[in-house]
Amino acid sequence: MRRFYAPPTQIKGPFLYLTGSEAHHFLHVLRLQVGAEIEVFDGEGKSYVTRVVRCTPEAICCHIVSVQTELPDRTIRFVLGQSIPKGEKMTWIIEKATELGIDALIPLQTERTVPRGDPNRLARWQERWQRKAWEAAKQCQRLHIPVVYPCMSWEAFLRQVSLGHPPELSSSPDNLWADNQRLLVTPGTVKLICWERSALPLRAGLPTQRPDQSILFVVGPEGGFTDQEIQQAQAHDFLPVSLGKRVLRTETVALAVLTLLQYLYGDFG
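Now predict its structure.
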């Protein structure tokens, strides 16, 4: 059965609507017609089996036949703070991290981050990265789409992490941490910063028991974190950890850590 995405705002009573690129894909790529049965997920844990009842160039109207709700497979949330790497690496990280089960991702501009942009350019990047997240969720059969937050400076990120009562999610890069009413960063969050010069292995820095709160891990850009940034992170209760003697590429670090966390505390074990 073909799979499509529609946000909750496009689900109204017994009907839901595909618009934009999803409507275009239905009509002009797959060339489906009225009467087709398709699966639609809302990105927040629900999947719908539907039958198409009306097609226009603007929207595909689908009658809901059945609903499946996905219960959370784990209470712990995995949050990645990723310094923006060069080229298309960030897009690749978001795609693969979505497949591996990341819950939220915060793009960071640190001192050695090479890609820079004005607010409009940063907003376009975020929009493109969020789209990649839902495309990856659609492909790998996830019902929850991870949130890609607005790009943040290192200082703003640490300031938000230090808050004991995270504010509500909004479009402002100064407000983070709420993913569909689920707090992702709380006072009990385990906070790790990946640093190749740390003497503490990742395993030694992780809780021996499965934590009830989120795990937030931060990865630097190609040039790594500066000593000052490590000190600032430690002042905000981040624990520097390493992945052994090998120096890994930034895109390798994020996925290696996430895979290990999923094995130890998530749905890989």
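Residues 119-139 form the longest helix (21 residues).
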